[in-house]
Amino acid sequence: MTITETEGRTSWFIACKAEDVPVNGGVCVKYHDRQIALFHFARRGAWYATQNECPHRNQMALSRGMIGSRDTEPKVACPFHKKTFSLETGECLNGDDYQIKTYPVKIISGLVYIGIDQDEN
Amino acid sequence: MKIVIIGNGMVGYKFCEKLIAKSSPLSFNITIFGEEIRPAYDRVHLTEFFAGKTAEDLSLAPADWYAEHHIQLFLGDPIKEIDREKKLVHSVRGLSLEYDILILATGSAAFVPPIPGVEKNGVFIYRTIEDLELMKQWARKSKRGAVIGGGLLGLEAAKAMLDLGITDTHVIEFAPRLMPRQIDEAGSAILKNKLEALGLKILTNTNTTEIQGDESIRAMQFADQSHIEVDMLVISAGIKPRDELAKLAGLETGQRGGIVVNERMQTSDPNIYAIGECALYKNMIYGLVAPGYEMAEVVADHLVGGQKSFSGFDMSTKLKLIGVDVASFGDPFVQACDGRTVVLEDNMKGVYKRINISTDGKYLLGGILIGDADAYNMLLQTAKNKVILPPNPEDIILGSRAGETSGDSVSALPDDAIICSCETVTKENICKAVSLYNCESVDEIKKCTKAGTGCGGCVPMVKDLMLHTMAANGKYVRNTICEHFHYSRQELFDLIKINQLKSYDDVLDMFGKNDGCEICKPAVASILASLWNELILDKGNATAQDSNDRFLANIQKGGTYSVVPRIPGGEITPDKLIVIGEVAKEYHLYTKITGGQRIDLFGAHLSDLPAIWKKLIEAGFESGHAYGKALRTVKSCVGSTWCRFGLHDSVSFAIQIEERYRGLRAPHKIKSGVSGCIRECAEARAKDFGIIATEKGWNLYVCGNGGSKPQHALLFATDLDSETCIKYIDRFLMFYIKTADPLMRTAPWLNKMEGGITYLQNVIINDSLGIATELEKEMQLLVDNYKCEWKEVVDNPELQKKFNHFVNAPNEKDPSVQFEPMREQKKVADWR
Ligand SMILES: Cc1cc2nc3c(=O)[nH]c(=O)nc-3n(C[C@H](O)[C@H](O)[C@H](O)COP(=O)(O)OP(=O)(O)OC[C@H]3O[C@@H](n4cnc5c(N)ncnc54)[C@H](O)[C@@H]3O)c2cc1C
Ligand code: SF4
Ligand code: SF4
Predict the structure, then answer these.
(1) How far is CA B562 from the centre of its chain?
(2) B106-128, pLDDT tens digit by residue?
(3) What Cα–Cα distance (Å) separates residue B767 from each residue in B177, B356, B728, B733, B746?
(4) Is A34 in the B-facing interface, judged by CB distances under 8 Å?
(5) Percentage above 90 pLDDT, chain B
(6) Is B538 exposed, middle or buried (CB count within 10 Å of its CB: 0-12, 13-18, 19+)?
(7) CA distance from start to end of chain A
(8) Second label for B588, Cα 20 to 30 Å away, from A26, B23, B463, B652?
């Protein structure tokens, strides 16, 4: 079951309860056929969402990666070959030509909402 | 004076740099034309483009640099004609420019043999960033690759294909052996084995007669009528100097290409010079950067009135990147009349070393190193600087381990020894950079002296020199973990212990900065586990663990996990075997016996892990910690209970040891073995600690490794009783855990230890530091605190929740996981 609400160009769906996501870690969220990695970056009080697939070897694994930072850039490291990606821009930080998709996240009364651009639906 | 340079490659650029450094500003009016669209970049490290380096990373200097130095740079505009009479050059875009002095630095192009079909799509050469960009795109849809040419570049290209995900790659060499110009036959044979072990298929004596396919390559046909199917091909069959402009202008060129130059690098027209790979000096093309830079130096010097001349150049090389050490230096092939040859050949380990020594035994003339080229720089310098050899020159390739550190050997070199031949940087330059200018990292030394910025082969030696000089200056050398912690692992270990910290976040708050990363998180998590041995998923530490530790299983290709129950000493009852079989059947797992005498179950979905382990634990199994940097297995031979040679019961001892140290977390994995006699069926000497029965007790060996750089364990203590043996192991392991760097196994730990095995024996056996009791106590605490991690999860529904793929669809499995059948079991679909 998915519940969505729309706001401008973005429709928000409820991914899970905030407490379901490990502190400073990630989980994988299913949205139709899509897999989205959702991270609770508690040290910064921030939430991030990206595609779950690591583009390096096309593995559904980013949600199981470790998060952290490079300088001030928040990032996630794929558990397979430690390619790292910015959680803000989705850019690959090892210099490779990869780019991952990022999604907006908001928390309302303990529920995590992830935003999907309507053009993609 | 007007200087025009044709070719903005490595050597053309270096020439500008050198000329500017030597002359007063604006004394020359310099213009450089490049055919490529980018300013000169580091072609030597081109392959790193695949490993994530960008064109900017590879760039030698940005376009601004040229402007700052008043150099006119025209890119993407090749020169098409030289008018020697009027002293003019004409570019393709229609520019015409006068010169007083013209420099040809046009480099070379890949030589493409005239094989029918070379024009097809999917056939590449390997020379420019554009070539690599095209390859990268094409590789996405390729499955089978080939490289024509088994030389230095061909092998580099072949490894690049593997890294691009084309696991089925052939190397096709026309000659009877690989790298025929650099290494001898015996060396080639070993190299071939090693490359085959990496997954490359090597065809020597093979002549390609046709490249088949419609628009795109589909197959290759060979002269012996055989053929292979391929959908991507890289041609790396040698280089062809770019002398077409010179020819057109009537300059003298060699029969097989190359612009003829004298020792001042002047062509047959004294106002025109040629440098780099396009120049032919004494009938030789120098296809490496270092000689090209030397040529640039000679011309720059000449133009400011100097007297330097070129007199040939050392063609020593070391293959980079391929994952197999290969090097040749000096004269690798020496004839019997000119000297003698010492060869060390170890087919088992795949090591081949040959050195050629002058007849009087005094000097090193050259040699070949395969499988282990650590000594390359040292040997190259010994040969180049004519350092007098020790009385037993053999020793220099046998490799000394215990006691001697590399620092000792660099100190033996004379001050004027050239450490970086690309940039002509001497030992003295580097030591000064450290002592006078406080350079304390290789990067700083690179900036300050340029050493290591060319081919990069000297970097390990630069580092040794740096550390050695720092130590000699009484500076404290520290190896910090990452940007978040300015401490070495050992320092952090002590800090965490003294402050009794138990969670990653506490450690970060107290001693680190920012948010941590994938390097410090597992390093700290491992220290916490080594110190307190508490459940690693507790206290918010779960997300500081590597994925494997977080899910207590090894992540495998495709995103499923493998399950490895502990089977101490490799002993297992029929009933337990049946349970493993039943579990594997129920969850459709692929089963395989591992090298450590246990059974690995592959292909488990994340959400099935708790249920699988519940069954295993009910049958009496425990976690095997195959996922952790922890004790793996204690392998054993069957020993005196069954074997007619056995001196003691190796199985019982192995079980006792495995149960003692199970779950022990360390900087890296630890393996052990126990053999019942000197026949060593358990291969204990390949382990971090190994035990072999003797008539009187046990011999203990330490610091052996398998892995990519195998090393035998060294004899540590002899004829021990079981109790003393365990006491020493307690101390040894704890000392390792406390002092090693992250992800450092015991062999490199010992190799780096000043004083080597003798020092270690003193600490552990003679208690020279007075810490033996403490080490034992710390180990006992860990032993007492052991709990099976999987049992904790199976008993705790809260923890089990974390083992779902989808947080919002806990019952669904990852639909992207796909298997294919193979030999009555299954395998995971290949990387895409
Ligand atoms: C993959 C690879 C790995 C290598 N590894 C090593 C190594 O490990 N160690 C080592 O020492 N060497 C190595 N080399 C060789 C090294 O790169 C060359 O020796 C070096 O680049 C030679 O420099 P150059 O300036 O003579 O030629 P290049 O760097 O090729 O530069 C020549 C430039 O001139 C341009 N040009 C040609 N004709 C014209 C024209 N008419 N008008 C304008 N511009 C023109 C070309 O486009 C090119 O940009 C490697 C080479 C490759 C391709
Ligand atoms: S090592 Fe010795 S005791 Fe053990 S199986 Fe081999 S021969 Fe027998
Ligand atoms: S199991 Fe070990 S040796 Fe085999 S492919 Fe994997 S890492 Fe390499």
Answers:
(1) 27
(2) 999 999 999 999 999 999 999 99
(3) 54, 45, 11, 14, 19
(4) no
(5) 49
(6) middle
(7) 17
(8) A26
CB of B47 closer than 8 Å to CB of B160: yes
Q: How far, in Å, CA of B8 to CA of B10, rounded?
A: 7
CA distance B404 to B753: 10
Question: Minimum-distance ligand to the CA of B600?
Answer: 3
Shortest CA gap B358–chain A (Å): 48
Which of B54, B548, B814 lies nearest to residue A95, judging by beta carbons?
B54
Top-confidence residue, B401 or B486: B486
For B177, other C-beta atoms within 10 Å of its C-beta total 19
Average pLDDT, rounded, for chain B: 88
Bridge partners, B30 (sequence order): B3, B71
Distance of CA B510 to the CA centre of its chain: 35
In whole angstroms, give the CA distance from residue B337 to residue B18: 42
Interface residue A75 vs chain B (CB under 8 A): yes
- Which of A113-117, B114-118, B492-496 bottoms out in mean pLDDT, i.e. has the lowest? B492-496
Phi–psi pair at B150, nearest 5 degrees: -105, 35
The answer to whether the CB of B229 falls within 8 A of the CB of B218 is yes
By most ligand atoms within 8 Å of CB, the mutation choice from B635, B636, B637, B648 for ligand 2 is B637
Distance CA B249, CA A54 (A): 54
Asked if the Cβ–Cβ distance from A61 to B57 is below 8 Å, we say no
Going from the Cα of B705 to the center of ligand 3, the distance in angstroms, rounded, reads 15
Sheet architecture: strand order including B96-98: B79-83, B88-91, B96-98
The answer to whether residue A121 scores a pLDDT higher than 60 is no
Q: Alpha-carbon distance B414 to A1, whole Å?
A: 76
Residue B450 CA, ligand 3 centroid: distance in Å: 38
Measured in angstroms, the CA of B166 and the nearest CA of chain A are apart by: 12
Are the beta carbons of B640 and B648 closer than 8 angstroms? yes
Q: Which residues contact B46 (CB under 8 A, 6 or more apart)?
A: B58, B126, B127, B128, B129, B132
- pLDDT for B284-328, tens place per residue? 999 989 899 999 999 999 999 999 999 888 777 777 656 678 888
**Which stretch of A1-5, A21-25, B289-293, B805-809 has the lowest confidence by average pLDDT?**
A1-5
CA gap B192, B592 in Å, rounded: 29
Contacts of residue B568, defined as CB under 8 A and 6 or more positions apart, other chains included, come to B634, B654, B655, B658, B659, B662
Q: How far apart are CA B767 and CA B754, in angstroms?
A: 17
**Side-chain half-sphere CA neighbours of B287 within 13 A:** 18
Are the Cβ atoms of A68 and B517 closer than 8 angstroms? Answer: yes
Set of chain B residues whose Cβ sits within 8 Å of the Cβ of A13: none
Query: Which ligand gives the minimal distance to the CA of B45?
Result: 1
Quick one: CA dihedral B393, B152, B41, B102, positive or negative?
A: positive
Residue type at A108 in one-letter notation = I
String of DSSP letters for B417-446: -EEETTTTEEHHHHHHHHHTT---SHHHHH
pLDDT at site B208: 94
Q: Cβ distance B746 to B733 under 8 Å?
A: no
- Extended strands (E) in B7-95: 29-33, 71-74, 79-83, 88-91
Q: Which residue has the tokens 């990067």?
A: B443
| Cβ atoms of B613 and B790 closer than 8 Å | yes
Nearest 5°: the CA angle B544, B549, B554 is 140
Q: Which ipTM was obtained for this model? A: 0.86
Nearest CA distance, A105 vs chain B (angstrom)? 15
Residues of A in contact with B557 (CB under 8 A): 59
On whether the CB atoms of residues B190 and B196 are closer than 8 A, the answer is no
Q: What residues contact B133, with CB distance under 8 A and at least 6 apart?
A: none
